[in-house]
Design goal:
With about 400 residues, the protein is α+β, with helices and mostly antiparallel strands. Helix content is about 35%, strand content about 20%. It is built from 13 helices and 18 strands. A five-stranded mixed beta sheet has the order 14-15-16-17-18, with helices on one face. Strands 1-12-13-11 form a four-stranded mixed beta sheet. Strand 9 and strand 10 form a beta hairpin. Helix 6 packs across helix 7. It is globular. The protein starts with a strand and ends with a strand.
Length: about 400
């Protein structure tokens, strides 16, 4: 049994994430390396001061710009938009592992007889005309439809026919997102952008339970430490009930793919991937690391299990974007502020695009955080970096 103090466990998770000490990831290649480590990063279209995926990378990747992610997705095609933990961005080489979800989408589509003809029309049109949005596809009217894997969840009722057929073909893997303009998605034929050996590859993990194990192992690697408990870290792993999850943990341990970790002050056993044993050894030896101040994304991989973050770091975070304004404790789009090994507070900043101004609405420091000159300087630098990241040449509120 590996035993860690609370501080060692925190250091391990932060170092694994590339959030403590010197930057582990740099530039466009570093962004790709982090996505491969995490398995996926969540995408959300809301853009207050950067979209969730962009903010996730800017906190870890030295010199990261929004353009780098666009290039990895829509130029290099090293990454691809596809549902994993809800709507996500994954490495293109992982495409074959999600074949069962595309097959499920095909079966789901058979429930809606109107779709078949629309699918053929849409593919023919795109084949001749290239990338298209739902506004441009010459399909009119509404149809009754819901998606098997749509990231916004299933729904019933009337849906714009053009949107429905594009989303259906995206769900089945026949289309990919070619690019986005704001929140508008443009689709093109997947075979034009994904290599045939990936597009036509059989599922590498055919057995359903083995597939769940693969996804659990992947999520443990994304966070660093996880436990065998209900958690948002397991979202969208189909059919993962408590008995199946516990059995998966037991088998992954027996296969020597994960290791149990006992952490001071936490009753439940935690688990890490075996490949992270050298990093565990490093933090067990003790040491200090250069503190950095980083603003984390609301759906950051590090925050997927918020109960674990509360128990390890004493920091409780709730994304209040869908909370009625009168009930919010903080604000609409608030980012946790990580400083060294602790959460120092949270910040609400908005990119006022018309005036190229980053408006800092508020900064809330956590109880017990001492405002030092060093912290104030780090906060000011962090805000200036966030402004540059958003293309702002002015800052208001500090």
């Amino acid at each position: 049994m590996i035993r860690l103090t609370n501080r060692q466990a925190r250091q391990f998770m932060l170092l694994k994430q590339g959030l403590l000490g010197e930057y582990r990831f740099a530039g466009r290649q570093g962004a790709l390396e982090y996505v491969r480590q995490a398995g996926c990063i969540q995408f959300d279209p809301v853009d207050a001061c950067g979209k969730n995926a962009e903010l996730t990378l800017q906190s870890r990747v030295k010199g990261f710009t929004k353009q780098m992610l666009q290039e990895l997705l829509y130029q290099d095609r090293s990454l691809v938009d596809y549902p994993d933990k809800n709507l996500s961005i994954i490495a293109v080489e992982d495409w074959p592992y999600f074949g069962r979800y595309r097959r499920a989408a095909v079966e789901c589509g058979k429930q809606f007889p109107q779709l078949s003809d629309l699918e053929e029309r849409a593919k023919e049109y795109i084949g001749k005309n290239g990338p298209v949005s739902s506004d441009e596809l010459p399909v009119e009217g509404d149809i009754h439809w819901h998606s098997a894997i749509h990231w916004s969840g299933n729904w019933n009722g009337s849906t714009n026919a053009a949107r429905a057929v594009l989303e259906q073909l995206y769900s089945t893997g026949e289309l990919v997102i070619h690019h986005k303009k704001g929140t508008r998605k443009y689709y093109d034929l997947a075979r034009r952008y994904i290599a045939a050996e990936l597009l036509d590859a059989p599922d590498p993990v055919e057995d359903e339970f083995e597939h769940r194990k693969w996804r659990i192992l992947r999520r443990i690697g994304a966070v660093g430490l996880l436990w065998d408990r209900p958690s948002d870290a397991w979202l969208n792993i189909w059919g993962l009930k408590t008995p199946e999850r516990t059995r998966a943990f037991e088998e992954l341990m027996a296969e020597n793919k994960i290791l149990p970790v006992e952490v001071e002050g936490i009753r439940a056993k935690l688990y890490c991937r075996r490949e992270d044993l050298p990093l565990l050894g490093e933090v067990s030896q003790g040491g200090s690391y250069r503190p950095r101040l980083e603003f984390l994304a609301p759906l950051d991989c590090f925050l997927w299990d918020r109960r674990l973050i509360r128990e390890l770091f004493g920091f409780e975070y709730s994304w209040e974007i869908y909370t009625p304004a009168v009930k919010r404790k903080y604000g609409f789009y608030v980012l946790p502020v990580l400083y060294g090994e602790v959460f120092a507070g949270r910040i609400e900043a908005v990119n006022e695009t018309k005036t190229h101004t980053l408006s800092v609405k508020n900064i809330w420091y956590e109880e017990g955080i001492r405002r030092t000159r060093k912290l104030d300087v780090a906060m000011e630098r962090g805000i200036r970096r966030l402004a540059r990241f958003n293309g702002c040449d002015r800052i208001e509120g500090i």
